[in-house]
Amino acid sequence: MKQVVIIGNGIAGITAARHIRKRSNYAITVISGESDHFYSRTALMYLYMGHMAYYNIKPYEDWFWPKNRIGLVRDWVTQVDTKHKKLRLQEKGEISYDILLIASGSHPRKGGWPGEEAPNVQGLYSLQDLERMEQQTKGIERGVVIGGGLIGVEMAEMLHSRNIAVSLVVREKEYWSNVLPPEEAAIISLHLRRQGIDLQLESELEEIIQDEKGNAKAVRLKGGKQVDCQFVGITIGVVPNISFLEGSGIETNRGILVDSCFRTNQPDVYAIGDCAEYHQPPAGRKSLEQIWYTGRIHGETVASTICGTPLTYKPGPWFNSAKFFDIEYQVYGEVPNLPKEDTETLFWQHLEHEQTIRIAWNKSSGAVKGFSLLGIRYRHEVCARWIKTSATIDSILPALGEANFDPEFHRRHEQEIRDLYEKQTGRTLATPVRKKFWKIFG
Ligand SMILES: Cc1cc2nc3c(=O)[nH]c(=O)nc-3n(C[C@H](O)[C@H](O)[C@H](O)COP(=O)(O)OP(=O)(O)OC[C@H]3O[C@@H](n4cnc5c(N)ncnc54)[C@H](O)[C@@H]3O)c2cc1C
After folding, report:
1. 41 CA to middle of ligand 1, Å?
2. Domain spanning 3-107+239-306: CATH superfamily
3. φ, ψ at 285 (rounded to 5°)
4. 228, 128, 192: which is closest to 327 by C-alpha?
5. Closest ligand 1 atom to 291 CA
6. What pLDDT is attached to residue 411?
């Protein structure tokens, strides 16, 4: 029987294990150093905030693994010998494989700043990071978070939930304005300030100042400003876990280089999830995709290839979601943060609430390219279908109710959105079917 060994029990490795089990009788072993069981990394913040306990964020009961004949080994892989198809573990000796799947994820990136090695300076990725943060933030008054991305705002919210004052240091003009268009970025920046976050925009860290015991006691920003604090969070991105592959012959760049079926340059060795880097990324995608839902698709796709039916990675339209304190964010497809020659966008904003809708389409064909939403949810399958089928903006605007979860919102605001489009473009939309119905029978 073939022995499949998977390094990493995150969303990518575990999805692959489940799908290999569905498709085959192979022996499956998952090795991971961080935890005994798979848990939802995206929910780490809720443990700190006291909204959930650890067992709440484990998607499967512990009996699931033996029942499905998925062996779990808690250890760190320190070496991969592709010639003899063997792995060396830190504590439990060696393990052989016929097929190796590397799903080792990533770790927080460091910035190389003086003072960064202080015990109360850290990133947030693993359960061990969370444990350290728990210890280092007990009873403190102020934390500084460096980096205006999604994990930065989560760390800010975590500290804030314990009444710890937070300074969030962001290099850009507005929070996440390297991704969000200016209007949305300004709304989120204002929202963060309203929550009491000291948002330091267009600021960069220069140095972490330590006390005589080596603990961080302040940060100095470029320009000389100093902020006193007892904790520093560094959230400037993540780096793939690949150092244990040194000498293995597996080709790496920033991550583990893979083809469109997640094959590495070594026979029977695959890589997926945060640690994988595409030789040739799918159209419109970056070469590294370090998010949850793509890890899941990677796992499902590679399982098919490993079980004998090679499958090319076809991720469909881009999707991501996040929460900035109370504001939910969703993006489907491609919505540029800055004007693009071939793209037109419609931006609607609620007059009183923090709710916005932005729809992007191709200027010449009218084909819809993306939706970006704050404070409102749209149906994933509807948006993905419209984008995949190149539905035109003129055809989807009268049908927006299909995408909306909230019929009340639909009744109140969708006419406004259509009016805005007609005003902006000078075009006249077809009357929605519902309206026609009322004209006949109303
Ligand atoms: C705080 C936080 C919030 C996030 N929120 C979101 C979100 O809202 N939406 C979203 O899309 N994404 C989010 N992400 C990103 C998302 O969680 C990751 O993209 C995803 O978990 C990566 O999955 P993975 O399976 O590739 O790797 P991982 O989940 O990192 O799993 C890999 C595992 O392998 C282990 N490992 C590594 N090297 C070895 C080794 N040598 N030996 C043994 N074990 C090893 C690691 O310790 C780890 O447990 C968030 C990430 C963090 C940290």
Report:
1. 6
2. FAD/NAD(P)-binding domain (3.50.50.60)
3. -110, 160
4. 192
5. 19
6. 77
